[in-house]
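so the lab meeting is tmrw and i was supposed to have these ready like two days ago... anyway. pasting both below. for each one the top line is the aa sequence and the line under it is the structure tokens. i havent really looked at them closely yet so no promises
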Amino acid sequence: HTSNAYRIQGGTGGKSYISVMFCGSAAGVLLPPFVIYKSKRLLDEWCIGGPSDTGYDCSKK
């Protein structure tokens, strides 16, 4: 649990483009979150401070 559930990343015009996927089963098994940034490349600082085992990637679209 964290008091800061999200952090706004810099982008053009003050906007940010982030998708976060969560997956869980009816039995209560949860997979780690997966974060996708709208970007040509993934910056190292975007992957710092998230929950353990979180996956990170970027998408050009």
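ok protien two:
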Amino acid sequence: MGYSSYLRPRFETISEEGIEGIIDLANLNSQDAKKIEADPELFFSLTYPTSDILKVIEQINVRFSTKKNSSGLFLFEGLKGSGKSHLLLFIYNLFSHTAIAQNWLKRNNLTALSLMT
């Protein structure tokens, strides 16, 4: 029995071209309302607070709301499909769409960034 017997992709990930499985930052300015990258509400509704996202939120909080030493650089390394572009889009949306980001943080019981309040 194959994976397709157990797994069903979300409807948001299916397009005429097939499965939309990757974040393409070039779609940020897309006028296509179906593109996840161009719709911060859709993006956050599909984003789960993974350990990498939690680490990024923590480091941003340390950087901007404490006197602790913190790097101003995030270096995302990994194989293709490991979530690097998703993290970059997450950070972009965190600062570009603060009200939507704050709602996402609250829904996931995460401390709101003092930078954004």
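from a quick look at the 2nd one: The first strand starts at residue 14 and ends at 15. Residues 51-65 form the longest helix (15 residues). will dig more after coffe
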